[in-house]
Protein backbone atom coordinates (compact mmCIF):
# COMPACT_ATOMS: atom_id res chain seq x y z
CA UNK A 1 0.00 0.00 0.00
CA UNK A 2 1.22 3.52 -0.83
CA UNK A 3 1.09 6.80 1.06
CA UNK A 4 1.77 10.45 0.32
CA UNK A 5 4.20 12.61 2.24
CA UNK A 6 3.40 16.32 1.82
CA UNK A 7 5.65 19.18 2.91
CA UNK A 8 3.31 22.13 3.40
CA UNK A 9 3.77 25.87 3.08
CA UNK A 10 4.52 26.35 -0.63
CA UNK A 11 2.01 28.41 -2.68
CA UNK A 12 0.94 26.64 -5.87
CA UNK A 13 2.09 28.52 -8.98
CA UNK A 14 2.11 27.68 -12.68
CA UNK A 15 0.03 25.79 -15.23
CA UNK A 16 -1.89 22.54 -14.84
CA UNK A 17 -3.93 20.50 -17.32
CA UNK A 18 -7.03 18.57 -16.29
CA UNK A 19 -8.06 15.21 -17.71
CA UNK A 20 -11.35 13.95 -19.03
CA UNK A 21 -14.13 13.50 -16.50
CA UNK A 22 -14.18 10.18 -14.67
CA UNK A 23 -17.89 10.63 -13.99
CA UNK A 24 -18.56 10.95 -17.71
CA UNK A 25 -16.17 8.26 -18.93
CA UNK A 26 -17.58 5.51 -16.68
CA UNK A 27 -21.26 5.65 -17.78
CA UNK A 28 -20.13 6.10 -21.40
CA UNK A 29 -18.03 2.94 -21.11
CA UNK A 30 -21.03 1.12 -19.63
CA UNK A 31 -23.31 2.43 -22.40
CA UNK A 32 -20.95 1.00 -25.05
CA UNK A 33 -22.61 -2.35 -24.26
CA UNK A 34 -25.59 -1.15 -26.33
CA UNK A 35 -23.45 -0.93 -29.48
CA UNK A 36 -22.66 -4.05 -31.46
CA UNK A 37 -19.39 -2.73 -32.85
CA UNK A 38 -16.34 -0.53 -32.20
CA UNK A 39 -16.28 2.36 -29.76
CA UNK A 40 -13.46 4.90 -29.48
CA UNK A 41 -13.48 7.19 -26.46
CA UNK A 42 -10.93 10.00 -26.34
CA UNK A 43 -9.58 11.86 -23.29
CA UNK A 44 -10.18 8.98 -20.89
CA UNK A 45 -8.17 9.34 -17.66
CA UNK A 46 -5.96 6.45 -16.54
CA UNK A 47 -7.68 5.83 -13.21
CA UNK A 48 -8.31 2.81 -11.03
CA UNK A 49 -12.06 3.21 -11.61
CA UNK A 50 -11.56 3.22 -15.39
CA UNK A 51 -9.46 0.07 -15.04
CA UNK A 52 -12.22 -1.53 -12.97
CA UNK A 53 -14.87 -0.70 -15.57
CA UNK A 54 -12.57 -2.08 -18.28
CA UNK A 55 -12.24 -5.35 -16.35
CA UNK A 56 -16.01 -5.49 -15.93
CA UNK A 57 -16.58 -5.04 -19.67
CA UNK A 58 -13.94 -7.67 -20.43
CA UNK A 59 -15.63 -10.08 -18.02
CA UNK A 60 -18.78 -9.72 -20.16
CA UNK A 61 -16.85 -10.54 -23.35
CA UNK A 62 -15.81 -7.13 -24.67
CA UNK A 63 -12.31 -6.31 -25.90
CA UNK A 64 -10.86 -3.19 -24.25
CA UNK A 65 -7.61 -1.40 -25.10
CA UNK A 66 -6.40 1.75 -23.31
CA UNK A 67 -3.43 3.60 -24.79
CA UNK A 68 -2.49 7.08 -23.59
CA UNK A 69 -5.91 8.74 -23.19
CA UNK A 70 -7.68 6.74 -25.93
CA UNK A 71 -9.95 3.85 -24.98
CA UNK A 72 -11.10 1.42 -27.66
CA UNK A 73 -13.90 -1.05 -26.96
CA UNK A 74 -15.13 -3.84 -29.24
CA UNK A 75 -18.54 -4.97 -27.98
CA UNK A 76 -19.31 -7.51 -30.69
CA UNK A 77 -18.26 -10.50 -28.57
CA UNK A 78 -20.21 -9.59 -25.46
CA UNK A 79 -22.10 -12.80 -24.65
CA UNK A 80 -22.68 -12.61 -20.90
CA UNK A 81 -25.10 -10.55 -18.86
CA UNK A 82 -23.77 -11.23 -15.35
CA UNK A 83 -21.81 -8.43 -13.59
CA UNK A 84 -20.00 -10.07 -10.70
CA UNK A 85 -19.85 -8.77 -7.14
CA UNK A 86 -16.03 -8.80 -7.03
CA UNK A 87 -15.90 -6.04 -9.64
CA UNK A 88 -19.16 -4.17 -9.00
CA UNK A 89 -18.43 -3.79 -5.28
CA UNK A 90 -15.39 -1.64 -6.06
CA UNK A 91 -17.25 1.40 -7.39
CA UNK A 92 -20.77 2.73 -7.64
CA UNK A 93 -20.67 3.47 -11.38
CA UNK A 94 -20.59 -0.26 -12.12
CA UNK A 95 -24.36 -0.32 -11.70
CA UNK A 96 -24.58 1.64 -14.97
CA UNK A 97 -24.18 -1.64 -16.88
CA UNK A 98 -27.64 -2.74 -15.68
CA UNK A 99 -29.67 -0.71 -18.20
CA UNK A 100 -27.50 -1.44 -21.25
CA UNK A 101 -27.34 -5.19 -20.56
CA UNK A 102 -31.11 -5.34 -20.10
CA UNK A 103 -31.81 -3.33 -23.26
CA UNK A 104 -29.43 -5.33 -25.49
CA UNK A 105 -29.92 -8.87 -24.17
CA UNK A 106 -33.29 -8.74 -22.44
CA UNK A 107 -31.68 -9.92 -19.23
CA UNK A 108 -29.16 -8.66 -16.70
CA UNK A 109 -27.75 -9.90 -13.41
CA UNK A 110 -25.80 -7.14 -11.64
CA UNK A 111 -24.50 -7.09 -8.09
CA UNK A 112 -25.71 -4.30 -5.85
CA UNK A 113 -22.97 -1.64 -6.06
CA UNK A 114 -20.24 -0.50 -3.71
CA UNK A 115 -18.13 2.67 -3.88
CA UNK A 116 -16.98 5.26 -1.38
CA UNK A 117 -18.26 5.20 2.19
CA UNK A 118 -20.12 8.53 2.05
CA UNK A 119 -23.62 7.56 3.18
CA UNK A 120 -26.61 5.45 2.25
CA UNK A 121 -27.08 5.22 -1.55
CA UNK A 122 -29.61 2.60 -2.63
CA UNK A 123 -30.62 2.16 -6.27
CA UNK A 124 -34.38 2.19 -5.85
CA UNK A 125 -34.83 4.97 -8.43
CA UNK A 126 -32.84 2.96 -11.01
CA UNK A 127 -35.18 0.03 -10.42
CA UNK A 128 -38.27 2.24 -10.50
CA UNK A 129 -37.26 3.63 -13.89
CA UNK A 130 -36.42 0.26 -15.43
CA UNK A 131 -39.64 -1.24 -14.08
CA UNK A 132 -41.59 1.59 -15.74
CA UNK A 133 -39.95 0.56 -19.03
CA UNK A 134 -41.40 -2.92 -18.55
CA UNK A 135 -38.61 -4.80 -16.81
CA UNK A 136 -39.37 -7.60 -14.38
CA UNK A 137 -37.03 -7.01 -11.41
CA UNK A 138 -36.10 -8.93 -8.30
CA UNK A 139 -33.17 -9.02 -5.87
CA UNK A 140 -31.61 -12.40 -5.14
CA UNK A 141 -28.53 -13.02 -2.99
CA UNK A 142 -27.27 -9.46 -3.42
CA UNK A 143 -27.89 -9.28 -7.18
CA UNK A 144 -30.45 -7.34 -9.19
CA UNK A 145 -32.05 -9.73 -11.70
CA UNK A 146 -33.75 -7.87 -14.55
CA UNK A 147 -35.67 -9.38 -17.48
CA UNK A 148 -37.68 -7.93 -20.34
CA UNK A 149 -38.67 -9.31 -23.72
CA UNK A 150 -38.94 -5.79 -25.16
CA UNK A 151 -38.65 -2.53 -23.21
CA UNK A 152 -41.46 -0.04 -23.85
CA UNK A 153 -41.26 3.74 -23.66
CA UNK A 154 -42.85 5.31 -20.60
CA UNK A 155 -43.29 8.53 -18.63
CA UNK A 156 -40.99 8.25 -15.61
CA UNK A 157 -40.43 10.48 -12.57
CA UNK A 158 -36.94 10.01 -11.09
CA UNK A 159 -36.91 12.61 -8.32
CA UNK A 160 -36.09 11.69 -4.74
CA UNK A 161 -35.81 13.47 -1.37
CA UNK A 162 -32.15 14.33 -2.07
CA UNK A 163 -32.77 15.50 -5.63
CA UNK A 164 -32.33 13.76 -8.96
CA UNK A 165 -30.32 10.59 -9.40
CA UNK A 166 -27.29 10.90 -11.67
CA UNK A 167 -26.48 7.24 -12.22
CA UNK A 168 -30.19 6.43 -12.25
CA UNK A 169 -30.76 8.96 -15.04
CA UNK A 170 -27.83 7.43 -16.95
CA UNK A 171 -29.14 3.90 -16.51
CA UNK A 172 -32.73 4.65 -17.54
CA UNK A 173 -31.78 6.99 -20.40
CA UNK A 174 -29.41 4.38 -21.83
CA UNK A 175 -31.92 1.55 -21.59
CA UNK A 176 -34.64 3.71 -23.19
CA UNK A 177 -32.53 4.16 -26.33
CA UNK A 178 -33.57 0.66 -27.49
CA UNK A 179 -37.10 0.73 -26.06
CA UNK A 180 -40.12 0.89 -28.34
CA UNK A 181 -41.70 4.34 -28.49
CA UNK A 182 -40.98 7.50 -26.53
CA UNK A 183 -39.67 7.75 -22.98
CA UNK A 184 -39.84 10.94 -20.91
CA UNK A 185 -37.63 11.14 -17.82
CA UNK A 186 -38.91 13.83 -15.45
CA UNK A 187 -36.80 15.24 -12.63
CA UNK A 188 -33.80 14.04 -14.64
CA UNK A 189 -30.32 14.87 -13.40
CA UNK A 190 -28.86 17.91 -15.20
CA UNK A 191 -25.16 17.25 -14.54
CA UNK A 192 -22.71 17.83 -17.44
CA UNK A 193 -21.72 14.17 -17.26
CA UNK A 194 -25.30 13.16 -18.07
CA UNK A 195 -25.26 15.58 -21.02
CA UNK A 196 -21.99 14.06 -22.22
CA UNK A 197 -23.47 10.57 -22.10
CA UNK A 198 -26.41 11.79 -24.18
CA UNK A 199 -23.97 13.29 -26.72
CA UNK A 200 -22.20 9.95 -26.98
CA UNK A 201 -25.45 8.05 -27.48
CA UNK A 202 -26.79 10.53 -30.03
CA UNK A 203 -23.55 10.27 -32.01
CA UNK A 204 -24.16 6.50 -32.10
CA UNK A 205 -27.66 6.98 -33.51
CA UNK A 206 -29.85 7.49 -30.44
CA UNK A 207 -32.60 10.13 -30.44
CA UNK A 208 -32.32 11.99 -27.14
CA UNK A 209 -33.55 15.54 -26.57
CA UNK A 210 -33.44 17.76 -23.50
CA UNK A 211 -30.24 16.60 -21.74
CA UNK A 212 -29.15 19.25 -19.28
CA UNK A 213 -32.77 20.02 -18.39
CA UNK A 214 -35.12 18.35 -15.92
CA UNK A 215 -37.03 16.59 -18.73
CA UNK A 216 -35.18 14.23 -21.08
CA UNK A 217 -37.07 12.61 -23.95
CA UNK A 218 -35.84 9.52 -25.78
CA UNK A 219 -37.33 8.09 -28.96
CA UNK A 220 -36.28 4.47 -29.15
CA UNK A 221 -34.31 3.14 -32.14
CA UNK A 222 -33.61 -0.39 -33.35
CA UNK A 223 -29.82 -0.26 -32.99
CA UNK A 224 -26.83 1.95 -32.30
CA UNK A 225 -23.72 2.10 -34.48
CA UNK A 226 -19.97 2.47 -33.95
CA UNK A 227 -18.90 5.86 -32.66
CA UNK A 228 -15.95 8.04 -31.65
CA UNK A 229 -16.42 10.46 -28.76
CA UNK A 230 -14.29 12.85 -26.68
CA UNK A 231 -15.05 13.01 -22.96
CA UNK A 232 -15.89 16.34 -21.35
CA UNK A 233 -13.21 17.88 -19.03
CA UNK A 234 -13.31 16.87 -15.37
CA UNK A 235 -14.94 19.74 -13.46
CA UNK A 236 -14.20 18.10 -10.10
CA UNK A 237 -10.47 17.83 -10.82
CA UNK A 238 -10.44 21.45 -12.03
CA UNK A 239 -12.29 22.55 -8.88
CA UNK A 240 -9.83 20.64 -6.69
CA UNK A 241 -6.90 22.51 -8.20
CA UNK A 242 -8.70 25.85 -7.90
CA UNK A 243 -9.45 25.21 -4.23
CA UNK A 244 -5.88 24.04 -3.58
CA UNK A 245 -4.47 27.20 -5.17
CA UNK A 246 -6.68 29.32 -2.92
CA UNK A 247 -5.79 27.34 0.21
CA UNK A 248 -2.06 27.80 -0.44
CA UNK A 249 -2.55 31.47 -1.43
CA UNK A 250 -1.11 30.69 -4.84
CA UNK A 251 -1.73 31.63 -8.47
CA UNK A 252 -2.34 29.03 -11.19
CA UNK A 253 -3.82 28.61 -14.65
CA UNK A 254 -6.04 25.56 -15.15
CA UNK A 255 -6.12 24.40 -18.79
CA UNK A 256 -8.57 22.08 -20.59
CA UNK A 257 -11.25 23.21 -18.14
CA UNK A 258 -14.86 24.07 -18.94
CA UNK A 259 -15.74 27.06 -16.72
CA UNK A 260 -19.46 27.00 -17.58
CA UNK A 261 -19.67 23.68 -15.70
CA UNK A 262 -18.13 25.30 -12.60
CA UNK A 263 -20.07 28.53 -12.14
CA UNK A 264 -21.16 27.80 -8.57
CA UNK A 265 -17.66 26.70 -7.52
CA UNK A 266 -16.01 29.75 -9.04
CA UNK A 267 -18.61 32.08 -7.51
CA UNK A 268 -17.94 30.53 -4.09
CA UNK A 269 -14.19 31.02 -4.49
CA UNK A 270 -14.75 34.65 -5.48
CA UNK A 271 -16.91 35.13 -2.37
CA UNK A 272 -14.05 33.71 -0.28
CA UNK A 273 -11.73 36.28 -1.86
CA UNK A 274 -9.99 34.64 -4.81
CA UNK A 275 -9.47 36.56 -8.04
CA UNK A 276 -10.66 34.56 -11.04
CA UNK A 277 -10.77 35.11 -14.78
CA UNK A 278 -11.96 32.62 -17.38
CA UNK A 279 -11.81 31.91 -21.10
CA UNK A 280 -13.74 29.08 -22.80
CA UNK A 281 -11.05 26.48 -21.89
CA UNK A 282 -9.03 28.05 -19.09
CA UNK A 283 -9.38 29.30 -15.51
CA UNK A 284 -6.86 31.71 -13.98
CA UNK A 285 -7.05 31.97 -10.19
CA UNK A 286 -4.98 33.93 -7.68
CA UNK A 287 -5.28 35.04 -4.05
CA UNK A 288 -3.50 38.37 -3.60
CA UNK A 289 -5.94 39.86 -1.08
CA UNK A 290 -7.45 38.79 2.25
CA UNK A 291 -9.86 35.86 2.43
CA UNK A 292 -13.06 35.55 4.45
CA UNK A 293 -15.50 32.91 5.63
CA UNK A 294 -18.69 32.03 3.75
CA UNK A 295 -21.75 29.81 3.93
CA UNK A 296 -21.87 27.06 1.29
CA UNK A 297 -24.30 24.27 0.46
CA UNK A 298 -23.63 21.23 -1.74
CA UNK A 299 -26.57 20.82 -4.11
CA UNK A 300 -27.44 19.09 -7.40
CA UNK A 301 -26.11 20.79 -10.54
CA UNK A 302 -25.80 23.70 -11.14
CA UNK A 303 -25.10 24.01 -7.41
CA UNK A 304 -21.80 23.32 -5.68
CA UNK A 305 -21.06 19.60 -6.24
CA UNK A 306 -21.05 17.31 -3.24
CA UNK A 307 -17.78 16.00 -4.69
CA UNK A 308 -16.12 19.33 -3.77
CA UNK A 309 -17.60 19.69 -0.27
CA UNK A 310 -14.60 18.15 1.51
CA UNK A 311 -12.10 20.24 -0.45
CA UNK A 312 -13.95 23.46 0.40
CA UNK A 313 -13.94 22.46 4.07
CA UNK A 314 -10.15 22.08 4.04
CA UNK A 315 -9.80 25.52 2.46
CA UNK A 316 -12.20 27.23 4.86
CA UNK A 317 -10.33 25.80 7.85
CA UNK A 318 -7.49 28.15 6.79
CA UNK A 319 -9.70 31.21 6.16
CA UNK A 320 -10.32 33.74 8.98
CA UNK A 321 -13.89 33.96 10.21
CA UNK A 322 -16.78 31.58 10.68
CA UNK A 323 -17.92 29.43 7.74
CA UNK A 324 -20.80 26.98 7.43
CA UNK A 325 -20.76 24.06 4.98
CA UNK A 326 -23.95 22.07 4.40
CA UNK A 327 -24.31 18.95 2.26
CA UNK A 328 -27.90 18.57 1.07
CA UNK A 329 -27.00 15.64 -1.19
CA UNK A 330 -25.12 13.39 1.26
CA UNK A 331 -25.77 14.77 4.75
CA UNK A 332 -23.46 12.15 6.31
CA UNK A 333 -20.46 12.87 4.09
CA UNK A 334 -18.22 14.21 6.85
CA UNK A 335 -15.78 11.43 7.70
CA UNK A 336 -12.90 13.78 6.81
CA UNK A 337 -13.79 16.11 9.69
CA UNK A 338 -12.00 14.00 12.31
CA UNK A 339 -8.80 13.99 10.25
CA UNK A 340 -8.92 17.76 9.69
CA UNK A 341 -9.30 18.16 13.46
CA UNK A 342 -6.06 16.22 13.87
CA UNK A 343 -4.36 18.88 11.75
CA UNK A 344 -5.60 21.70 13.98
CA UNK A 345 -8.84 22.71 12.24
CA UNK A 346 -11.64 24.01 14.47
CA UNK A 347 -14.80 22.32 13.19
CA UNK A 348 -18.02 21.15 14.80
CA UNK A 349 -20.80 19.22 13.18
CA UNK A 350 -24.45 20.22 13.43
CA UNK A 351 -26.62 17.71 11.57
CA UNK A 352 -26.10 18.02 7.82
CA UNK A 353 -23.81 21.05 8.36
CA UNK A 354 -20.43 21.81 9.85
CA UNK A 355 -19.42 25.10 11.43
CA UNK A 356 -15.80 26.07 10.84
CA UNK A 357 -13.99 28.57 13.04
CA UNK A 358 -11.34 29.27 10.45
CA UNK A 359 -8.01 31.00 10.34
CA UNK A 360 -5.92 28.73 12.55
CA UNK A 361 -2.60 27.53 11.15
CA UNK A 362 -2.90 23.86 10.26
CA UNK A 363 0.00 21.61 11.25
CA UNK A 364 1.27 18.56 9.47
CA UNK A 365 0.57 15.16 10.99
CA UNK A 366 -0.43 11.59 10.07
CA UNK A 367 -3.93 11.27 8.65
CA UNK A 368 -5.96 8.59 6.91
CA UNK A 369 -8.30 9.04 3.94
CA UNK A 370 -11.81 7.61 4.19
CA UNK A 371 -12.95 8.13 0.60
CA UNK A 372 -11.96 9.68 -2.72
CA UNK A 373 -12.81 13.34 -2.15
CA UNK A 374 -11.78 13.19 1.52
CA UNK A 375 -8.35 12.19 0.18
CA UNK A 376 -8.22 15.34 -1.94
CA UNK A 377 -9.29 17.45 1.06
CA UNK A 378 -6.48 16.05 3.19
CA UNK A 379 -3.96 16.76 0.43
CA UNK A 380 -5.19 20.38 0.27
CA UNK A 381 -4.99 20.73 4.04
CA UNK A 382 -1.47 19.26 4.01
CA UNK A 383 -0.37 21.69 1.29
CA UNK A 384 -1.55 24.60 3.45
CA UNK A 385 -0.16 23.24 6.73
CA UNK A 386 3.10 23.90 8.52
CA UNK A 387 5.42 20.94 8.45
CA UNK A 388 5.10 17.46 7.01
CA UNK A 389 1.94 15.39 6.66
CA UNK A 390 1.59 11.71 5.88
CA UNK A 391 -1.63 10.68 4.11
CA UNK A 392 -2.48 7.00 4.14
CA UNK A 393 -4.92 4.99 2.00
CA UNK A 394 -4.04 6.86 -1.18
CA UNK A 395 -5.71 4.09 -3.19
CA UNK A 396 -8.87 6.16 -2.67
CA UNK A 397 -7.19 9.14 -4.36
CA UNK A 398 -6.08 7.09 -7.36
CA UNK A 399 -9.69 6.20 -8.13
CA UNK A 400 -10.42 9.78 -9.22
CA UNK A 401 -7.19 11.68 -9.93
CA UNK A 402 -4.48 10.84 -12.45
CA UNK A 403 -0.98 11.48 -11.08
CA UNK A 404 -2.21 14.16 -8.68
CA UNK A 405 1.11 14.15 -6.83
CA UNK A 406 3.06 14.79 -10.04
CA UNK A 407 0.70 17.56 -11.16
CA UNK A 408 0.99 19.27 -7.78
CA UNK A 409 4.78 18.98 -7.86
CA UNK A 410 4.67 20.68 -11.26
CA UNK A 411 3.02 23.61 -9.47
CA UNK A 412 5.76 23.85 -6.86
CA UNK A 413 4.38 21.51 -4.19
CA UNK A 414 6.52 18.94 -2.39
CA UNK A 415 4.60 15.67 -2.54
CA UNK A 416 6.30 12.29 -2.34
CA UNK A 417 4.59 8.97 -3.03
CA UNK A 418 6.14 6.00 -1.29
CA UNK A 419 5.33 2.60 0.15
CA UNK A 420 3.55 2.60 3.50
CA UNK A 421 4.96 -0.25 5.54
CA UNK A 422 3.45 0.78 8.86
CA UNK A 423 0.51 -1.13 10.39
CA UNK A 424 -2.81 0.33 9.30
CA UNK A 425 -6.31 -0.83 10.27
CA UNK A 426 -8.65 -1.83 7.52
CA UNK A 427 -6.27 -2.26 4.60
CA UNK A 428 -6.99 -1.47 0.95
CA UNK A 429 -10.59 -2.52 0.57
CA UNK A 430 -13.73 -0.77 -0.57
CA UNK A 431 -16.17 -0.04 2.22
CA UNK A 432 -19.86 -0.51 1.55
CA UNK A 433 -23.01 0.68 3.21
CA UNK A 434 -26.26 -1.20 3.55
CA UNK A 435 -27.89 -1.58 0.14
CA UNK A 436 -31.48 -1.89 1.33
CA UNK A 437 -33.89 -0.50 -1.23
CA UNK A 438 -35.67 2.63 -0.06
CA UNK A 439 -36.75 5.94 -1.54
CA UNK A 440 -33.81 8.29 -1.88
CA UNK A 441 -31.39 9.48 -4.57
CA UNK A 442 -27.72 10.11 -5.23
CA UNK A 443 -25.49 12.58 -7.05
CA UNK A 444 -22.01 11.09 -6.96
CA UNK A 445 -20.23 8.22 -8.71
CA UNK A 446 -17.61 8.00 -5.96
CATH homologous superfamily heading of the largest domain: Enolpyruvate transferase domain
> How many domain modules?
2
CATH class of the largest domain, named: Alpha Beta
CATH-derived architecture of the largest domain: Alpha-beta prism
Walk across the major sheet and give the strand order.
24-25-1-26
Count of helices? 13
Q: Main beta sheet: strand number and arrangement?
A: 4 strands, mixed
- Determine the CATH topology of the largest domain: UDP-n-acetylglucosamine1-carboxyvinyl-transferase, Chain
Which ranges are low-confidence, i.e. pLDDT below 50, for 5 or more consecutive residues?
A: 115-120, 425-441
Mean pLDDT: 92
Helix content: 25-40%
Give the total of beta strands. Answer: 26
Q: Which range does the strand content fall in?
A: 25-35%
Using only CA atoms, what is the Rg?
21 Å
Oligomeric state of the chains in view: single chain
Shape: globular
Structural class: alpha+beta
Distance between the termini: 20 Å
Q: Can you offer a commentary on this structure?
A:
- Residues 115-120 and 425-441 have low confidence and may be disordered.
- The protein is globular, with a radius of gyration of 21 Å.
- The chain folds into two domains: 2-19 and 233-419, Alpha-beta prism (UDP-n-acetylglucosamine1-carboxyvinyl-transferase, Chain); 22-230, UDP-n-acetylglucosamine1-carboxyvinyl-transferase, Chain (Alpha-beta prism), CATH 3.65.10.10.
- A hairpin with a 2-residue loop joins strand 18 (275-279) and strand 19.
- The chain has a four-stranded mixed beta sheet. It has a four-stranded mixed beta sheet with strand order 2-17-19-18.
- It has 446 residues and is an alpha+beta fold.
- The chain contains 13 helices and 26 strands.
